[in-house]
Amino acid sequence: MSSMDREEFRRGSLESWQAMAAGWERRRADVDAITAPVRDWLVRELAPEPGETILELAAGPGDMGFAVASQLGDDGLLITSDFSPAMLEVARRRAAELGLRNVDLRLLDALELDLEDDSVDGVICRFGFMLMADPATALSETHRVLRSDGRLVLAVWRGPEQNPWVSIAGRILVERGLMPPPEPGAPGMFTLGSEEHLGSLLDEAGFTDTRFDDVPVRFVYEDVEDFVATSREMGGAFGAAFGSAAPADQAAIVEELRASFVPFTTANGLELPGVALVALAR
Description:
Blueprint: H1 3-26, H2 28-34, H3 36-46, E1 53-56, H4 63-72, E2 77-82, H5 85-98, E3 103-107, E4 120-126, H6 135-145, E5 146-157, H7 164-175, H8 195-205, E6 210-221, H9 224-234, H10 236-244, H11 247-260, E7 265-266, E8 269-281
Parallel strand pairs: 1-2, 1-4, 2-3, 4-5
Antiparallel strand pairs: 5-8, 6-8, 7-8
Helix pairs in contact: 1-5, 6-8, 7-11, 9-10
């Protein structure tokens, strides 16, 4: 991606996250519950210790990093960061609600971190690198700010076959011409979903010791209408594409989703599986 394309993508991404911040705040607890297995893996492998400085990138509402804050003690520091001011305000309100005193909320772009070299002990990023305009640069910046014995924990999504909670809707919208098909290598939900590709980027960034794992999750919805409402609030691409469709087309999309979700229908609603690829890198 050229510098011009990168900046254009960044502007569009920022606009999207600014618009979605309110929806993410309303559904913050649901996201935290669904992704709890990922959070638990990341926090366990990060192994934060009292007095350390931990940086969270693409923090969104902040709950991922806030799970670490209590382990850092009064002498430790959690830097909660996002490039979206609206998202950072969501995290600020959540930190105040939790009464956290060892959290520094900063507006940071992961591609150009305004932090000194060798200044943090650990970095945590849940589902952020894959959506950045230049994940290779972001990983290099991450390595730069880590101390020599520092570590990075991150999560991305595996491929579309393992994540029907998002891939089915994406396929339907692409087939209806409401979304362009994903470009190979472009930022997106599955662009870092293989160990080979993610591992090569980590190697190029300077990490020499990486371990991968898979963590399954389940997305639970009351029904298809709940899925659509949630996706419109929290999924920028889905919300824009679905919103651009005529009412008759929207109704047809809902019915197509309903038919596609039959294998995932339970007595309590819908349970759509997903698999995260998680990594610990030093």
